[in-house]
Amino acid sequence: xxxxxxxxxxxxxxxxxxxxxxxxxxxxxxxxxxxxxxxxxxxxxxxxxxxxxxxxxxxxxxxxxxxxxxxxxxxxxxxxxxxxxxxxxxxxxxxxxxxxxxxxxxxxxxxxxxxxxxxxxxxxxxxxxxxxxxxxxxxxxxxxxxxxxxxxxxxxxxxxxxxxxxxxxxxxxxxxxxxxxxxxxxxxxxxxxxxxxxxxxxxxxxxxxxxxxxxxxxxxxxxxxxxxxxxxxxxxxxxxxxxxxxxxxxxxxxxxxxxxxxxxxxxxxxxxxxxxxxxxxxxxxxxxxxxxxxxxxxxxxxxxxxxxxxxxxxxxxxxxxxxxxxxxxxxxxxxxxxxxxxxxxxxxxxxxxxxxxxxxxxxxxxxxxxxxxxxxxxxxxxxxxxxxxxxxxxxxxxxxxxxxxxxxxxxxxxxxxxxxxxxxxxxxxxxxxxxxxxxxxxxxxxxxxxxxxxxxxxxxxxxxxxxxxxxxxxxxxxxxxxxxxxxxxxxxxxxxxxxxxxxxxxxxxxxxxxxxxxxxxxxxxxxxxxxxxxxxxxxxxxxxxxxxxxxxxxxxxxxxxxxxxxxxxxxxxxxxxxxxxxxxxxxxxxxxxxxxxxxxxxxxxxxxxxxxxxxxxxxxxxxxxxxxxxxxxxxxxxxxxxxxxxxxxxxxxxxxxxxxxxxxxxxxxxxxxxxxxxxxxxxxxxxxxxxxxxxxxxxxxxxx
Length: 704
Prior knowledge:
The protein is mainly alpha-helical and 704 residues long. The chain is 60% helix and 1% strand.
């Protein structure tokens, strides 16, 4: 889900020509049965926490397709007072369903909070989803109490889960406390949790961590959180080990609001008083914060880190991004060093596989010179007689360097049409983006199996009556979690086709996207409303593939999609923006309730997209960023050196917008291959990004 900031920034404004309002609305009409209405009322009562209403309505849901949901809502609302026998009766009655395992998840959380390890141990082996970090940490806490537990392995897992938790939690904290007590966690492990929480501005998790290792330091923590600069300028602090860590937290806190001040205080006052690890971590945070602000000093700050192994993957990622963005040419050696210091998991991410490959290609000779060939093992040389080895060497063709060979192997490992960096890797290998062959047609048996899957059918029905969130969760459970490893490829294709046939486009796309071997582009990149999209795109001079690529990312073709702050429809338009857009393009008679009308939404969304594209000189990357985050930010982000657009996109400061731009451009390239039937290039669409040319028209500052 996009952040509130990003949804607020989705300002789909204006076009340039007068447009008439479509004559007829394109809204969907859903006829609900009386039983459906009961289910919907129960869903509302559950969200209100109205236990009495849930109990009164439950008998009316008996026999309905969504009865398991109704029963789940009623029992979950009073789970804290329900008996173990009553809960187990529910689990037995709805055995095999998503609702059974969902309630088991909720109960396991409650049992962990109550420290009811007997019932937890009885129930946890039946837990199929296994995707709740808190529950997993409770299970590890229980396992740690057993003789012979592999505490080192379990500590690594708890560390990953705990550090990934954004908010305060009980499960991972409980496991961490046990590991600390058994000395399988060091105090540094706990302080690092406090550092991560402090940088994220999350007070409660930071307090919880500090309480584990230095409960007497809570007053200091309160002071530094209120005013880190004042705290750090206090010359009366005596530096114990705990106070050094508190100083570290204060510097981190200050760096999030005033990077330069934090750097000055660390450099001039605190640097020599902190441990090497503490200094490296703080310089890493300062470097990251500067890089996120696209500051020119970022690499200078990172240069003060004496051991990259003291940095986490997030800091190293920003060090690599800053090195990519530096000057007129990336600092490839620093890119390579940053990636090599990352964890194994991070290095496997296609982002860093690609950029490591690029760094190797940029820093290694393309071939070995002839004199180096003579130093290779005999099997790598050729004699005058053409046999391996021998003493009479003759000139041989140049041999590819090991670094270049490694780079090409990295590109080959990810090259595909699947995503942004996969497509760029494909092009590095000299190939174009084309539509892959369609998988073998689904058999009637495969289709029937999907059409008889009760969880998929419940999910589809829930979505059809307006319980989209509940339906999506059940659909994802059926495809990903109901069985170990999830559905196989053919089952996924059949489930995706079921969703496609019912025009549940988000499940159609997301389910098909999970196949690793066969890629069905008709499912992954559907073209609903093709006539309307193509017609409108041609009218205003937009590439229809770009429009489809953006809609796929915005709404997955859900016409009634609505964001948390009111962005609506296929192209996710805010009401105020829609009104301004309608006024700008001369759309007569527009009212905000028409945003969800299909054609109106397309007209307004494409008008804004075209205006953004024109304002940014035809740059698809910058226009996509403007569509997602508003035009003001990419106007700032473009200042600096002229960059490959891929480097520019990777340096977009906000993760949501960074991901959005890359996905829209990748989608666009695949849609272009589908719509034209011709090989495509992502690189050609990307081009370069730099400051606005001196002779270019001034920015369209009236564009919201």
